[in-house]
Amino acid sequence: MKKHNFSSGPSILPQEVFEQAAEAVLDFNNSGLSLLEISHRSKDFVAVMDEARALALELLGLENKGYQALFLHGGASLQFAMIPYNLLGANQKASYLETGTWAVAAAKEARLFGEVEIAASSKDANFNYIPKEIGVSPDASYLHLTSNNTIFGTQIQSFPEVTIPVVCDMSSDIFSRELDFSKFDYIYAGAQKNMGPAGVALVVVKESILGKTGREIPSMLDLQKHIKGESMYNTPPCFAVYTSLLTMRWIKNNGGLAAAEKRNREKAALLYAEIDRNPLFKSTVQGEDRSVMNATFVLTDERLQERFDALWKAANISGLTGHRSVGGYRASMYNAMKIESVQTLVDVMKEFEKQA
Ligand SMILES: *Cc1c(COP(=O)(O)O)cnc(C)c1O
């Protein structure tokens, strides 16, 4: 029986996407060939890549606005290095908003290329909030943000207005809500949270910000080379790209980002209401900074842990254990999660209260 999967990533995808992906592995487009055994230069796969790139821009409302969408190897973590490699000249400075483990990792890579300024940090409180007062040098090459902090359960709800290019790691909330995406110059996301299997990252970049560092860039790390190669400079991760395309089609067919946001807000509201109501649980994040994607919470009495764990496991729930740097629990409610799964968790929390 299929589990209620609250895993933070790799994570849930729509059931129909699993089925369509499985079918393509066996027989792609009734071709008598598996998706895994055809040339990436074949007509059928080039069509997949073209549609995936176009649909990413369409969902974000960024068609014909000077952006390029790419599907690249190396996950979000390689982007941590590709960003400064492509955008940060020697003797230049980049500004990073330090809101969690991933933001720290991104800034660390940038220090290999130039100076890094921390625009603000919530490290003082184990990253349980989003800093609102930020100091960004007007001469910085870019500001780097993490829209959703997967580990700490915080999410930026209102984005800082700056005059320099904005780079945003949207790994764990890509395609989950409506935003004016034209305010960003560089959006990237590892696929394995909201979009597809591990092995590919979506990069959406405004072409006009590239080619300004005066630096020679190894081909595989050079965004302009990837754009020129139409995201096929080398063999792309074909299966991960195809499965991401299936998810994007699913999002589009189910009302686009507006409808996805509505579903996601309903799920989060249901769970946070129970965390706040139930005296046996405590949220680790308060107020508007709470993530709609990843809800982090702890038990008010840790001695009850074994009993709670047994209850949710018996209810066919999986992947609820929190990240070691926060402890407790984390319910990841990505795009593909149904509200019925969240209701199952809420029912378990109520039952736990009754039994305690
Ligand atoms: C998971 C995650 C990453 C790391 O992704 P990889 O694809 O494993 O490199 C980076 N940033 C955020 C916000 C994440 O959630």
TrEMBL record:
UniProt entry tagged with the keyword Heme: no
Biological processes per GO annotation: L-serine biosynthetic process; pyridoxine biosynthetic process
Enzyme class (EC, first level): transferase
Pathway(s) annotated for this protein in UniProt: Amino-acid biosynthesis; L-serine biosynthesis; L-serine from 3-phospho-D-glycerate: step 2/3; Cofactor biosynthesis; pyridoxine 5'-phosphate biosynthesis; pyridoxine 5'-phosphate from D-erythrose 4-phosphate: step 3/5
Main localisation: cytoplasm
Residues annotated to bind L-glutamate: 8, 41
Residues involved in pyridoxal 5'-phosphate binding: 76-77, 102, 150, 169, 192, 234-235
Record-listed N6-(pyridoxal phosphate)lysine modification sites: 193
Cofactor binding mode and count: Binds 1 pyridoxal phosphate per subunit.
Annotated GO CC locations: cytoplasm
Reactions catalysed: O-phospho-L-serine + 2-oxoglutarate = 3-phosphooxypyruvate + L-glutamate; 4-(phosphooxy)-L-threonine + 2-oxoglutarate = (R)-3-hydroxy-2-oxo-4-phosphooxybutanoate + L-glutamate
Name of the protein this chain belongs to: Phosphoserine aminotransferase
Species whose genome carries this gene: Flavobacterium aurantiibacter
Gene: serC
